[in-house]
Amino acid sequence: MELMIEKAMMNDAVLLTKIMKAAFDQEAQKWLSNEQNTADFNIQPPGYDSLEMTEYMIQELDYYKVIYKNEIVGGIIVTISGKSYGRIDRIFIGPDFQGNGFGSAAMKLIEKHYPYVKTWELETSAKQINNHHFYEKMGYQISFETEEEYCYEKRNGAAKQDPADMQFENCAMANTEIYKVNMPESSFSNSNLSKSHFSNCNFSQSKFQNINLQRTLFADLNLSDSRYMHVTLSGVRFADTNLREGKTPISFDRCNLEGSRIKSSSLKNVEISDSNISGMKINGISVEDLFHAYEQVNNK
Length: 300
Fold this sequence. Notes:
The protein is α+β, with helices and mostly antiparallel strands. It is built from five helices and nine strands.
């Protein structure tokens, strides 16, 4: 089989987005055809049809294009945590090339490319029964399952036992790797966590207080119904962000947004009240001038 993988480049983004959309739309048609208005983010992951998301993943993740006879036929995206743990975030083969063993071959090539990875993990929809058989054939075992999602892992080494109720104080733990560790109600304080990598972690109901997050990247996150209070956002940039249809709008209360810019965005049904709008412009037109003209018309 003349199949190979290569790191994706920015000039591959358009084609890879097209192939991913076709592959995942085909899966949705197969498994969601009888479920109207039902979202399944394992079948159609957030941003799967977005060029901007593809460009982000090429830049920030380990994104490989799958090539057959000099033609890009799919992609495989992985996250490597530390030196021993890997996660297959997405794998897709174009509909015209499925059924030829390209998916299994690509996964074997990834494992060969990262021989030091001891444990691989991935997730798939509970509906995609064919995926379950495929991953189990590849040596993966179910590690967690719900009515919506199946989680799989493949170990190439012995599992490590969990320490419980332990305390670490004044420890030098640089380059430590933590994987599948149960740490509810744990606390981190007065610690140096610079350049740490958190991937596929559950931080629900956690508290982050007095934290230095300068030059930190937040991307591909689900922050629904979260609260941010007493936060300094100088220089922060929000891009390719949405509320999804039917979700509760964002609220800004008592915020200083002086000099901020909103560009190429949907502001449909946005309301601004009791706010200082001096110097504010929409499409280069002064809002103060617009109000002044409006008042003149109404006062006639």
